[in-house]
Amino acid sequence: MAQLVAVYRNPSYSPLQHRKNDTAIMDATIAELEAQGWHAMRITECDVERGELPPAELYLNMCQGARAAEQLMPLELDGTVLVNRPSSALDCHRHRLVNRLGGRLPAFPRTAIVASTAPHAAREQLRALSIENGKVWIKRGDVHAERPEDVVAVPLECLEPALAAFARRDIARVALQEHVPGPVVKFYGVADSRFFRWYDAATGPAGRQPAIHEGRLRELACEAAGILGLEVYGGDVAFPEPDRPVLIDLNDWPSFAPFRGEAARGIAEYVGRRVAQRRCA
Q1: Whole-structure pTM value
Q2: 115-119, long-range: CB < 8 A, 24+ apart
Q3: Rounded to whole angstroms, how far apart are CA atoms 145 and 159?
């Protein structure tokens, strides 16, 4: 019987309701693969950090921390099937994400990574980004939000106290990002586009959806995920115009909560194909 190892995310990276939902999508994906004949072993990100990594043909990887990624990297270099790859998960850390996408993806907001303890330098960066009025987004510069206050929009006159709040929580780097007007949609995808869904962030999956160009949304999401090598991904896109999407966030293996059953089937089908390709290589 084929062996897979499912690595559950450290709870600190799954704030609020995401903790339950992140576990649920992994459980649902495992159930789909077990129905195909796989035998699953469940471990945690903390187990991986300690070097406790059982041998397997397939790894379902939700780890987001650098220590776990270091332990998994030799498997990636050896060509083992990991979904997602640890290098791709690390590239979702915001300071890496800005560097990877900022120069290669035109539809990405002007963003600067700065020290939270340097408000004057941050002011200079905002001028360089041509952000002189309105509001600016401040996002923690490493992993994605662990708490609601990790991503905030503030008027420019409130920049210094907002940066100080990040510094008090020992968040050394932050991303300063221009505000992109228009409706924001959340999207979820699996590589090869066998699964792709979206909804309006304001109204939710059951609410009224904005009139946007869905094809361009899909193209942008797939292009961004492809740059990072992400295979199971999600994110946020703003639409200043109905046919002009702008990517404002991208992350590895989201919860897929509104579409969990469909997503689990899509992920299981995709990783099954990846394993088959590896066996034939």
Answers
A1: 0.91
A2: 115/172, 115/173, 115/174, 116/163, 116/164, 116/166, 116/167, 116/171, 116/172, 116/173, 116/174, 117/163, 117/167, 117/172, 119/159, 119/160, 119/163, 119/164
A3: 19
HSE (CB half, 13 Å, CA atoms) of 3?
9
- Which residue positions in the chain have pLDDT lower than 50? none
Question: What pLDDT digit, counting tens, does each position of 77-121 carry?
Answer: 999 999 999 999 999 999 999 999 987 898 999 898 989 888 777
Cα separation, 123 vs 217, whole angstroms: 32
* Domains of the chain: residue spans and CATH: 3-84+259-280 (3.40.50.11950), 110-178 (3.30.1490.20), 184-252 (no CATH)
